[in-house]
Amino acid sequence: MTDAHDAMVARRLRAVRRAHGLSQRELARRTGVGSGTISQIEAMAMQPSVSVLKRILDGVPMDLATFFGFELPDDRSPVFRRDDLLDIGAPGVAYRLVAARRPGRMLQMLHEFYEPGRDSGRRWLSHEGEECAVVIAGRLEVTVGDEVFVLERGDAYYFNSSVPHRFRNVGSTVCEVVSACTPPSF
Fold first, then answer.
1. What is the mean pLDDT of the chain?
2. Which residues contact 39 (CB under 8 A, 6 or more apart)?
3. In the prediction, which pLDDT does 46 show?
């Protein structure tokens, strides 16, 4: 198979999964195919066999002909309206991703909202690259390694993303943040 074929399968699978409002984990649960496998397919780290792809599509449901035949949306527009931002967050935390469907995206930009007391999750985040953000409203506790900082409106952070880190709203109102990360981790 060619790299172009791998990219096409990755884009199509991502588009189908997102069109059905499914996370990689939920699609994996529905199909019995590991979420790591789905992640690797979407990242073009592996090419699925026909039988694996069919199992994945059965969870939607969609047949192979439809999968390879539908028109992919043009993801190259320079403008993204509020409703175009894909929310990849969890209850109480919204991560609205800019240009989520753009192939070859080299930058991750999020418009984040944390309800009071909510955080980025129990597991520490750690990934290749650098990230930065500006707090737009509220109070955000930022933990990077063993350092803890509380940021308020207008404050910002910038650090190496390979250092384990977490975020938590320590205020009594919604905390709004605009962040960027390169290379993308979502």
1. 89
2. 24
3. 86
Chain segment 25-37, per-residue pLDDT in tens: 899 999 999 988 9
Sequence-distant (≥ 6) Cβ neighbours of residue 146 within 8 angstroms: none
Q: Distance (Å, rounded) from C-alpha 114 to C-alpha 119? A: 7
Q: For residue 5, what pLDDT is reported?
A: 66
Q: Tens digit of pLDDT for each residue in 43-56?
A: 888 889 888 999 99
How far is Cα 79 from Cα 56, in angstroms, rounded to an integer? 32
Per the DSSP assignment, residues forming a β-bridge with 112 are: 95, 177
What is the token pair recorded at 12?
């199509």
Compute the distance between CA of residue 166 and CA of residue 83 in angstroms, rounded to an integer.
27
When pLDDT is averaged across residues 170-185 and rounded to a whole number, the result is 96
